[in-house]
Please model this.
Amino acid sequence: MSFPQRRLRRLRRTDALRRLVAETRLSPDDLVAPLFVREGIDEPRPIVSLPGQVQHTRESLRKEVAALRDLGVPAVILFGIPLVKDANGSGASDPQGIVQLALRDLRDEVGDDMVLMADLCIDEYTDHGHCGVVTATGEVDNDATLEIYAEAAVAQADAGADVVAPSGMMDGQVMAIRDALDDESFEQVSILAYAAKYASGLYGPFREAVDVTIAGSGHRKGYQQDYRNGREAMEEIRADIAEGADMVMVKPAVTYLDLIARARAELDIPIAAYHVSGEYSMIKAAGERGWIDADEVALEQITAVKRAGADLILTYFARELAEQLG
Ligand code: PBG
Model:
């Protein structure tokens, strides 16, 4: 009879031993909560496909953000749903636009105790649902869109954003935004670039959350990345860093852990990962059916994203995890 030479199970015997040797420790400090705020409503509205998430009123948003602060979550990222959508998404850069109003409320509420991030894109504000302006032939016009992003960045910075997060995947967006911010003396405002953002089927629930239907093609494959490509993610990331990104993001998260790991191996700036709406909803839906333990799977997935190399994780589980990790 021969015995195993290495006994790797010894260190797994008790919870205390497992805690002692854990390589990855998830903390509320790692989390960013994505939040939705809708113009012109009196009560928060549940988002059916994102159980537990709502479209906030300005008032309910204040309360949610204060609660997140009390739980130790250091940051939120805001998405707005305007009353009126138009071809150029003008609500995104209107000083009275919903996200700008919310940023002012939140700065007043939490001071510098939280990092306020604003998603910088126009799809929530356009009547056609694309992330950029659309030409007569139905193409998304890259360079015309950059001018709009620059204006939106200045509006968000002026309203108090610490971080603007361009998510539209236009070429040159980080440089256009950095230039505009610096011209208006917002040198201190950082850019979190959605650098490697894939055209993913996992954004479905988000589109319900922000009332977006994509006109024409019905997809964003003309500007977001193709999931068959991995090396290209590093090209996107390098380009964004060269243009002035302070932090870069990989999105979605769990299907792209290879790219988070690759980015971590090559980069020394903070890397974010976005555990997106579909990733959240799949866990919630299977949990509701009793097929999986949703709390356990949420912790497992978000920990895995950190283990792969993400420094900050945008997740709809932020509040629940902060409560759990307390
Ligand atoms: C674009 C944007 C999207 C998401 C974040 N920013 C939607 C898209 O690209 O279609 C998706 C986030 C999620 O699914 O949780 N403003």
Remarks:
- The CA atoms of residues 142 and 252 lie 23 Å apart.
